[in-house]
Amino acid sequence: MSIVLDLGGLGPADLAVGPSALSELMASLHVLAGPEHHPEAAAWTARAAAAGPELHDELSVFAPLWARYRCRLFFPRTLPLPASLDEEFAAIEALSAEDFLRLVAPGVLGTNAQPMPAARELRAGTAVAEDYVRRCLRRSYARGELARQLVAAPLELRDRLLTVVRAADTAFFAEDWRTLRPALEDHARAVRRRLATLPQPSAGGTPISLRSPAEVLTELLPTAARVGPGERIRLDKLQIDEVKVAPRPLVLVPSARVWPHLTVKNEPGSCVVVQYAARGTTPAGELTLRDLRHRLMALNSPARMELCRHLLGEPITTSELAARLGSSEPQVSRALRTLRDAGLVRSTRDGKLVRHRLATDVVQRLGHDVLATVAR
């Protein structure tokens, strides 16, 4: 499963890179709403929750907007990028009821797998609005209640949302952003340098990029890969989509709080946005879905699991493993190759001997229970 971005036709003026305070606030609220899914941010979560305990109930009401399906309202929509969080708040405050509905209604529903009615049709008391509320309610009570309030009084809900996110900014985010912003801006400048342009040799020629957007994004995003001909990249996500970016702009938003997520927003009438974890904010060696399946399948064998238990205690040769297990050396070699190809076993040469050992750090990253099961 993946999202393919077709970057063909993008010119230098069509690609922007920069942090967004509003997008970072949304990523922070996502972590705060589900701390059990973000153990790497446990210390920050505890500080933020303690700084604004009175916000808990109101943040819970709006939590569907920053759940797995991130609401489009919190991302840049046009170029140039906003300069400050106050500017982003002011843009939300200026939205009409219809524009607010258009940006927020899909986020309340929380999926792009179902068709969305046009915002102008979501009027209180209409069959279309009632069906929309029912669909949100089937996904969760919280989504259904938020949908009901959205349809009944969109501008009142807009103002209530602005009140709570401004309070979150005052309580904990403003201080956090002062720390995070310089590093994110440095990162964005480095990416822009990689996308730097030069004039064509001919007089008056159109500027050309030193590096193509697809080349830079493939290096920038750990789970991205070039696909097929042209400027196309595949992003490893639990979604299936193909996005032709041009003639819209592409906005890259580096984040310190979004990991392990990668967010792609592709709504008509707005720029395409990719929010990603900036380098230095993620654990090393982020896995693709393919690699994760490979590792789990390698462990999904009683014989290979038994092999792992012997490899956990000490470095051991193929012949020694075969003797212990009562198996032939070719059988053990095949099992070792499967585990080694999945990154679960490391082999080192010692003179004429090759010794194998379980990569416990790799297994541990799959989960403490997996390592504990191997170690029994």
Question: How would you describe what is shown here?
Answer:
This protein has a 4-stranded mixed beta sheet with strand order 5-6-1-7, with helices on one face. With 376 residues, it is an alpha/beta fold. 49% of the residues lie in helices and 14% in strands. The mean pLDDT is 89. The two termini are 35 Å apart.
Q: Counting H and I runs of at least 4 residues, what is the number of helices? A: 15
Widest β-sheet, arrangement of strands: 5-6-1-7
Order of helices and strands: EEHHHHHHHHEEHEEEEEEHHEHHEEHH
Helix residue percentage: 40-55%
Count of extended strands? 13
What structural category characterises the helix and strand content? alpha/beta
- Quote the distance from N terminus to C terminus: 35 Å
If you average the pLDDT, what whole number results?
Answer: 89
- Low-pLDDT sequence parts: none
Q: What can be said about the biggest beta sheet? A: 4 strands, mixed
**Approximate shape:** elongated
Write down the Rg.
Answer: 25 Å
Strand fraction:
5-15%
